[in-house]
Amino acid sequence: MMQQINRYVYYENAFPGVTVGAVVLPLGTILVDAPLRAEDVRTWLNLLLNLGSKSNRVLINLDAHPDRTLGARSMECTIVAHQKTAQVFRGRPSVFKGQNADSGSEWETYDDVVGTRWAIPDITFTQRIAWHWGEVEVACEHHPGPAPGSTWVIIPDERVVFVGDVVLANQPPFLTSADIPSWVETLDLLINAYQDYTVISGRGGVVSMDAVRNQQHHLKNVLKGLERMAKRNSAPEEVESLIPSLLSDWDFSEEQKEQYVQRYRHGLYQYYARRYRPSEANSE
Q1: Ordered structural domains, the chain, with CATH
Q2: How far is it, in rounded angstroms, from Cα 17 to Cα 36?
Q3: pLDDT in tens, 83-126
Q4: Surface-to-core class of residue 195, CB atoms within 10 Å of its CB (0-12 exposed, 13-18 middle, 19+ buried)
Q5: Bridging pattern class, strands 20-25 and 28-32
Q6: How many CB atoms lie within 10 A of CB 60?
Q7: Residue from 1, 5, 3 nearest 136 by CA
Q8: pLDDT tens digit string along 160-171?
Q9: What is the DSSP code string of 75-130?
Q10: What angle do CA 197, 17, 39 make, to 5 degrees?
């Protein structure tokens, strides 16, 4: 069900894929990520229309993950993303073919998204870009960690920040394209500079500062485990041994276990191979 944070800011956590957001301003609407499926895009846009959303709108991709970008074309508006996110799209086929179908992502449970044509970002930025479409500023800032082009949407006057996959609500992180040391630093910034903000995760909606600290603690444990493997010159396949301990940090249903195990298996393997055994890493 759609949640209203304040007079301008909304998010919706009921669609499969990611938590989507919107800042509905007098001169236009700034959309944060896209629902995964075209039918959910239509539902989302209709909900916003009922709130007075204008046809003038932009969509911000918080990173290049398929869960948040496959539905972008159906949004039918200008798309904004970090320069490094746009580079990922340039390296992809024009049509989504379901590559990395074992990554533990949400899209893998919806066969109908395969064959979707990607929407390439129209506007890119390197550090920061901002809109003034009403009484409040809405800014996009680059905060790397989960992906090279990871972005936050910040509404300073309303004390709200959308952080994408920097913090996930009670589920494993996506590590395939991550930089864990940068991610830990980004979480330090969130903890120290955004304590009085409403923090909206890209997967789960509003999260507490305790959840932010737990995310950071978990990532440090991931890094310790991988560094121990690297010191032993372990093969990438041995990341499997880290999964049971990492899973114990989360409280999830039995139905989610297979997906989360696969997310770790894929992400840990790719991260370890890329960072410690680059000759064995697979490209996206």
Answers
A1: 3-208 (3.60.15.10)
A2: 5
A3: 999 999 888 878 877 666 788 888 888 877 777 888 999 999 99
A4: exposed
A5: antiparallel
A6: 29
A7: 5
A8: 999 999 999 999
A9: G-SEEEEEHHHHHHHHTS-SB----STTS--GGGG-GGGTTPBP---SEEESSEEE
A10: 115
